[in-house]
Design a protein that fits this description.
- It is globular and about 55 Å long.
- It has a seven-stranded mixed β-sheet with strand order 5-4-3-6-7-8-9. It has a two-stranded antiparallel sheet with strand order 1-2.
- It starts with a helix and ends in a 9-residue tail after the last strand.
- By secondary structure, the protein is of the alpha/beta class.
- The protein has helices at residues 4-16, 24-32, 64-74, 91-99, 110-122, 159-163; strands spanning 53-56, 59-61, 82-85, 103-107, 128-132, 145-150, 165-177, 180-189, 192-201.
- It has a single domain, classed as Vaccinia Virus protein VP39 (Rossmann fold, 3-Layer(aba) Sandwich), CATH 3.40.50.150.
- It has six helices and nine strands.
- The protein binds S-adenosyl-L-homocysteine.
Length: 210
Amino acid sequence: MFDLTAARQNMVESQLRTRGIADPRVLEAMLRVPREEFVPEAYRRHAYEDSPLPIGNGQTISQPYVVAVMLEALELRGSEKVLEIGTGSGYVTALLAELAGPVFSIERHAVLAENARRTLERLGYSNVRVLTGDGTLGLREAAPFDAILVSAAAFAVPDALWEQLAEGGRMMIPVGTPDAQQLQLIRKIAGRPVVLVREAVRFVPLISGS
Ligand code: SAH
């Protein structure tokens, strides 16, 4: 029997800690959340590999290291209100729920949203809400958000997301074209964006409209 718990511990050591992820809360959350529950049955034994994996509908669950970089940069301390765009499998949603909360997550594929909702409920996450819709519009009725995490690549930061970020809040978003994207950490300080350009990444595109 393939030992998924050992594989998870090994992932945290060899893919995260040795590459510089240091926030103990992020490392602990990634030790707790069973990534295998968020991938299709056929990929379970590959759940802790150093890569994205297919989750259906042409979408992917993000690489663990990239997820850790994004979470660490948000500096979540426990009670932040968080908006996630691109729920996908719900894996990052679960991690956000471990690190902060309440978490609002928007996914444009109804089938993926429904699967993620079911997985999150089965694992006992009660401080999350998964909504089907266009995440580029944000979620006005729950704004402002202390943190926003976008898991799909935008050509530019959607206006609504910037508007819905709280003063002092942080947003992590991949920005660029399909084959040249960079993660950006955007802070709202005195109403102005302070941008830190981070790693080069490759995410599926953020699609506006339905
Ligand atoms: N964090 C997720 C990544 C999923 S991939 C995981 O680890 O599983 C990115 C997701 O963004 C896809 O599921 C895609 O359908 C979704 N997406 C793309 N454009 C979107 C939009 N405008 N609004 C909401 N979701 C969107």
